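haha ok so turns out i had the wrong file open the whole time. this is the CORRECT one, sorry everyone. sequence first:
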Amino acid sequence: MNEELARRTALELASAVKSRQISAAEVIRSTLQRIAAAEPELNAFTDVTESRAVEEAREVDRAIARGEEKSLSRCVPGG
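then structure:
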């Protein structure tokens, strides 16, 4: 995971996505990389739906580009 993103709070990530400083897809891809790296040791997830997470993040990005308000909880880890 991009270490800069890993250190940000959920509110900081949501604000950065909303202001288009970073994309929701970038946040999700970074989070999925972190999960993949840690999961063998942690065994914390029963199911990681990578393709669904990426598609939902892309939809958030498209909605933001159209000027629509979108629930950012769909693209923020732990949201």
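The first helix runs from residue 3 to 7.
again sry for the mixup
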